[in-house]
Amino acid sequence: MTGLRQLARALAFACLCALAPVSALAVQPDEMLADPALEQRARALSLEMRCPVCRNQSIDDSNAELARDLRVLIRERLVAGDSDAEVIDYLVDRYGAYILLRPQIGADTLLLWLAPALMLGAAFAGFSILWRRKGPPPPESEALSEDEKAVLAQALGQGPGQGSRP
Amino acid sequence: MAGGIRKSVLIPVAVFLLIGGVLFSVAAGTRDVTGEGYLDRPLPEFSQPPLIGDERGLAAEDIRGEVALINVFASWCALCLSEHPMLMRLAAEEGVPLYGLNWKDRPGAGRRFLDRHGDPYLATGEDAAGRLGAQLAVTGVPETYLVDAEGRIRYRHVGALTEQVWQEVLRPLIRDLERPS
């Protein structure tokens, strides 16, 4: 019974923990757009943009004042009729490609994108070379040599010069 | 067998060091790229209101036609205070046109700051909401932008403007830009 109660408590706590991030939302109500469709696009765009102050946070997550400015800027561009791509171009034009949390695939980021595949390939190549070089163990001849036969016969007590047991 | 063991240890370590060394040398040579999109782009069109107590603000056309510095500052920023004597010296001795942008400050605070510590700027604009700052990709104060005669942004210095930054970075850049080509 107590075990069940403990489980219920743990579950309740887990639910609370899951809810916690919602209450810590950086986006303030006064920033939000009345049009839910536009607001949703703004949120989606904000998630893709790096906060220039807190580097590894999106401007959607960041409480920095600068992130708020950028969120408002994105909403203004959307209200002005910009497409998502135009908003992204607008920000990249000013802040550089660094503003994008997910780097675009381009000549300068190709190495970055290919690096995991290259490393995996190199690892496979390395292992296969290693395994091939080791190869299967050399086959040993199954027949016993004369010396071995003699030793074996002696051990079994059937060697020459030995009579049968008393 | 001992040779085999040594090789099996040495090769991964060597590969690790090789990859690490390459990445480290690449990272060490990389500059901070925050806000590089503005480089070599024309200044946005802007016309900022004056500080409270001033007659004129700062507009983009005020700056066009000469190599100039735009210094972004705020009264609440301690680094701005520490770089202020340097700005005063630049304005008095170096003859480089210096303009001010008072960023995200309380009304009246910018003028009070300049009254107390001296005003090195030819003209100062107010950017209370950081709107122009967002256009320029300002990420904090102080920041100093170098603009060429065509009004294009050629360099941005993030942080306090020191004698060393002036001697080693800004002055050579300004000399290059002013040289008739």
TrEMBL record, chain A:
PANTHER family for this protein: CYTOCHROME C-TYPE BIOGENESIS PROTEIN CCMH, CYTOCHROME C-TYPE BIOGENESIS PROTEIN CYCH
Similarity annotation: Belongs to the CcmH/CycL/Ccl2/NrfF family.
Gene3D superfamilies: Cytochrome C biogenesis protein
Annotated signal peptide: 1-26
InterPro entries in the cross-refs: C-type_cytochrome_biogenesis, CcmH/CycL/Ccl2/NrfF_N, CcmH/CycL/NrfF/Ccl2_sf
Domain CcmH/CycL/Ccl2/NrfF N-terminal stretches: 15-155
Function: Possible subunit of a heme lyase.
Keyword terms: Heme, Iron, Membrane, Metal-binding, Signal, Transmembrane, Transmembrane helix
Parts of the chain that traverse the membrane: 110-131
Protein name: Cytochrome c-type biogenesis protein
UniProt key word Membrane: yes
Lineage, opening ranks: Bacteria, Pseudomonadati, Pseudomonadota, Alphaproteobacteria, Rhodobacterales
From TrEMBL, chain B:
Entry keyword set: Cytochrome c-type biogenesis, Disulfide bond, Redox-active center
Localization, UniProt: Cell envelope
Main localisation: other
CDD domains associated with the record: TlpA_like_DsbE
Signal peptide annotation: none
Family annotation (PROSITE patterns): THIOREDOXIN_2
Annotated ranges, domain Thioredoxin: 37-175
Cross-referenced Gene3D superfamilies: Glutaredoxin
Source superkingdom: Bacteria
InterPro entries: Periplasmic_diS_OxRdtase_DsbE, Redoxin, Thioredoxin-like_sf, Thioredoxin_domain, Thioredoxin_ResA/DsbE_sf
Presence of the UniProt keyword Transmembrane in the record: no
Keyword Disulfide bond set for record: yes
Stored NCBIfam families: dsbE (TIGR00385)
Family to which the UniProt record says this protein belongs: Belongs to the thioredoxin family. DsbE subfamily.
Protein name: Cytochrome c biogenesis protein CcmG/thiol:disulfide interchange protein DsbE
Organism: Limimaricola variabilis
